[in-house]
Amino acid sequence: MSAGPRPVSGSTAGELRHVLSHLVTPLLMCIGMGLAYLGAFHAPEPHDLRVDVVGSGASARVLAQTLQDKGDGALSVRTVADRDIAVNHLRKQQSYGAYVPGGSPELMVASASSDTSATVVQKIFTDVAAEQGAPLDVTDVAPTADGDPTGQGIFFLLVGVSIGSYASVAVIGGAGAVLALRIRAALAIGTSFLVSVIGAAFAGPVFGLVDHGLGGLWAMAWLYSAGALLIGVGLHTFLKRWTTFGVMLLFVMLNFTSSGGIFRPELQPGFFGSLHSFWNGAGFVEGVRSHVYFGGHALGGHLLAVWFVAGLVSVGCAGLAEARRRHGAAEKASGAAAVRSADGADEEAEEEMEEAVGV
After folding, report:
1. Residue 227 CB-density burial (10 A; 0-12 exposed, 13-18 middle, 19+ buried)
2. Under 8 Å CB-to-CB from 16, ≥6 apart: which residues?
3. Distance CA 258, CA 279 (A)
4. Per-10-residue mean pLDDT, the chain, length 359
5. How far, in Å, CA of 180 to CA of 198, rounded?
6. Whole-angstrom Cα distance, residue 176 to residue 337?
């Protein structure tokens, strides 16, 4: 007669509970990635997408107002006096399309600012020109480099640099947990340098994503990576095994989706658009675009340095917390030693008393 199923031993049950508790992290990652990526990218629609209509006459004003009304919030349309002003707006990323009406209508775009936004604007004004019975001539006043025809190479560079950074946090925080915090911080700085060099190599000689400004791109990649690594190393002191989920939330889920690398905030839900104004991935993508394609215009408005400072603050807070823990552990150990010493003294006194009375 065969024996029935053997009950799970206490040891195995404990190990199973341990594994199941750790499976919570990847399941949360699955939920978080789905919410973030689908929430940000599944249904892009323009809202307040700034475009110009070139002309100062009544017909230009009527066309602008018609587009504004028909767009129902999709477009923010204004008129500008001449073509030069419209080009200047495009080159300062103050608009994403400029329409010049007439017998041979022209649409000016800046694909380096956002290829997807340029595509949306082109579709809108192709229909406008068709209603006027004329083909649309499209002029790109700020094209991307030959090695990045879609303009999305900078976004995928962000992905590579981010993965190199946040994955290194797990190594430094886990395998390096026994090291002093100053050594872990130094490892973070050194690793960020290597990650940024790899990123610059991909952007320049390997894939040709940019055809100039590689030094500035490398500097922004280092600043971005160093900030992410320092924040992660600091957080590990507090989050422990939840650090991986924490850095993925910060530097993947909320970061890639708000960076503007695929869709600018004018094509996304408002939550991701609001993050775009200050999140570090947006700072890297928009900073590189500004540096490489727009003459550095508004480069100082991208907050990579703030995130680097946040990394230093994170490490500083971790240092204070670890110092308090060491002090508490030392006091506890000292108290335990004192108790053992007192117990030993009591035992010696009792032995002497027994000897004195002849017990």
Report:
1. buried
2. 8
3. 7
4. 53 88 90 95 94 94 94 94 96 96 95 95 95 93 95 96 95 90 96 98 97 96 97 95 93 96 94 94 96 89 91 97 91 72 52 39
5. 27
6. 30
The total number of residues written for the chain in this structure: 359
Cα 357 to Cα 241: distance, rounded to the nearest angstrom: 60
Q: What whole-number distance in Å separates Cα of residue 168 and Cα of residue 192?
A: 9
How far is residue 204's CA from residue 190's CA, in Å, rounded to a whole number? Answer: 21
Supply the pLDDT for residue 132. Answer: 85
Determine the straight-line distance between the first and last CA of the chain, rounded to whole angstroms: 64
- Pairing mode of beta strands 98-100, 106-109: antiparallel
pLDDT of residue 332: 84
